[in-house]
Amino acid sequence: MFLGRFLSIFSSKSSIFAIASPHYQSFLVPSFHFDNASCQMRHFSAYPRFDFGSIREPDDAVALFREMMRTRPLPYVTVFNKLLSVVVKMQQNTLALRLFDEMLQRDVPINHYTLSIAIDCYCRLKRPDFGYAILGSFFKRGYEPDVVTFTTLIKGLLLVGRVPEAAKVLWKLSVYQLCEHDEYTYSTMINGLCKAGGTLEAIDLLCLLEKEKGSCKPNVYAYNAVIDGLCKDGKVDEALQLFSTLGDKGISPNVVTYNSIIEGLCNRRRMDEAEDILKKMIADKVCPNVVTCNIFVTAWCKDGKVEEAEHMLVSMKEIDVQPDIVIYNALINGYCMQGKMDEAVRIFQLAVNSGIKPNIVSYNSLMNGYCKKGQVNEVSRLFNMNSSFKSLNSQLRILLVVDSSFKTQIHDYLNSQLAQLTLSAQS
DNA sequence: TTAGGGTTAG
């Protein structure tokens, strides 16, 4: 049985932890001994120390920002930049831009790091043109955009599929000697090309870099992007071929490399080969992570082997990998697809009891399952548990998959909910 | 305590 073999593969992983444990220990030991001097400096500093680690919600960041704005003299620009970075890492790009705007309006000192963060936010919001506009502020304030700034803009253009423009920026960097490109620049370009459907062009660029003399050789991120692109294009054998050459090139595959290959094989239902790659991964001392586990769980669920897939939760505990909502959702959906709603709800509860918050995907899977069984009352109950404008569009999408005999009933129900939500929003 | 990179679910 595949699951049995899978578990036995994982059980051999204890050796990995044995090897890795000294690193874990040194990582966990607090570094008081060499931080004493700086602690004392801070203790006597006139500036308060702002605790960015305590930021959990966007509101926390706003509260800290307000506190910083009230502090006199104002904190250094580095402190404001740090706060903006924390907000960006929370994927609150609009909020980061709002804070940035307030800094400009209230004449808080900024530097080229601040401007790069703002460009990054616009790019992440898929508005690279606004990012470009900020380049003007660089020159106005006497700063020069550097390789990070340009790489960020290239990434932004690629994110919205503007491949030729991104290539042009890359080309201009060299021709006009605006700055020296680095590994990030090329891996960003290669990844963007793959994500925009241009895996072949990405391979061409990769080959060009491999032949180029100099220090800017493609790294594991660039190879991962191409391997993943090939797998997603269904060209798993080509991905395997490239994967097999990595060792000779001095590139160590990491967990993402292995996950992409495993996913490519699983999607083609080449499960035995996926298992072989997992074995190789463990032999190479690369620890499987939650994504690795989820790839197998998803594949088993699609094959209708949901009970077996559920055993993965046990395996994960054994190897100290924490399940996340993605893996619970894969199982919930697996049971829903089989019409086993009691089992689906049990997994839902298991997630909640484990402290994992269900999300829109969890609710949609359950609603879809109940719709398929015609249990409209359960659908309404779930809808009321999770009704908001944000999720409404996703919930309406279930109409596409429910049996036609229930469509009218659910459609009327959702319309009445929509009307109520509209009214409450207006009031 | 200052900026840029990858993989997963309905």
UniProtKB/TrEMBL annotation:
PPR repeats: 111-145, 182-218, 219-253, 254-288, 289-323, 324-358, 359-389
InterPro entries linked to this entry: PPR_P_subfamily, PPR_rpt, TPR-like_helical_dom_sf
UniProt keywords, alphabetically: Repeat
Cited NCBIfam families: PPR
Family: Belongs to the PPR family. P subfamily.
Protein's name according to its UniProt entry: Pentatricopeptide repeat protein
Record organism: Salvia miltiorrhiza (Chinese sage)
Organism lineage: Eukaryota, Viridiplantae, Streptophyta, Embryophyta, Tracheophyta
